[in-house]
Amino acid sequence: MSKLTSEQLVFLKSQSISLSLAVDAGHLSKAAREALMKESGHKFYYGGAPCKAAGHTLRSKAGHCIQCDTSKIAYQLRSSAAGYVYLAHSERNGFIKIGFSEVEPYNRVTWLQTSAYGDVNDWEIKRSIRIQKDAGKCEFEIHSALEKWRRPIVYQKNGQAIECREIFACSLAEAEKHFLAITRAY
Q1: DSSP state of 147
Q2: Fewer beta carbons within 10 angstroms: which end of the chain, N or C?
Q3: How far is it, in rounded angstroms, from Cα 173 to Cα 135?
Q4: Where are the alpha helices (DSSP H) in 41-184?
Q5: C-alpha–C-alpha distance, residues 125 and 113, integer Å
Q6: Residue 162 is inside which H or E element, if any?
Q7: Residues 6+ apart with CB under 8 A from 182
Q8: d(Cα 165, Cα 184) in Å, to the nearest integer?
Q9: Environment class of residue 122 by beta-carbon count within 10 Å: exposed (0-12), middle (13-18) or buried (19+)?
Q10: How close are the terminal C-alpha atoms of the chain, in Å?
């Protein structure tokens, strides 16, 4: 059994990560660790093999060092959060956007339209579902299912180039088929 070091405690506090989200699971096999974390709801673990870069042992569910790459923290927390997964459609361009929102996405459509997200201003929400756990994961599964239709779009907003990676060029029927099949599992 491992214990969190004072350095790890300071790090977790600096990242506003509750101690209840971390578990000593480094002594377990990968399968046992994944099962424990899924069942218990823990997002991070410690006590395993040190990372090669700096010897840290705080890891994300996927085994990434969260001290070397703090972006993994936000990804893990978003991936496992409750929220809405939605499917937006642009009639004019024939584009699909699969997104995640912590708030009701029918309110988000105004933002998508007024910001001309992806250079599109006629977005309409066609499907939306509240997912109690792992909404971000559900969103990414739908993205994966639609991968062959992905259309990364770069557009200018306030003088900055913004890349949209959750836009797809497939039929609404095709997108809805995958959306419904995947969200049913959640």
Answers
A1: G
A2: N
A3: 22
A4: 71-79, 105-114, 135-145, 172-184
A5: 11
A6: strand 160-164
A7: 138, 141, 142, 145
A8: 24
A9: middle
A10: 33
Strand-pairing partners, residue 46, are 24
Look up tokens 């042992």; give the residue. 57
For residue 81, give every residue at least 6 positions away whose Cβ sits within 8 Å of its Cβ, in sequence order, or none: 102, 134, 135, 136
Q: Which residues pair with 84 in a beta bridge?
A: 101, 130
Predicted confidence at residue 141, as pLDDT, reads: 93
Tens of pLDDT, residue by residue over 62-92, are 999 999 999 999 888 877 789 999 999 999 9
137-159 pLDDT per residue, tens: 899 899 999 999 999 888 776 67
Query: What's the pLDDT at 59?
Result: 95
Which structure tokens are listed for 136?
Answer: 């971000």
* Tokens 């006590």, residue located: 47
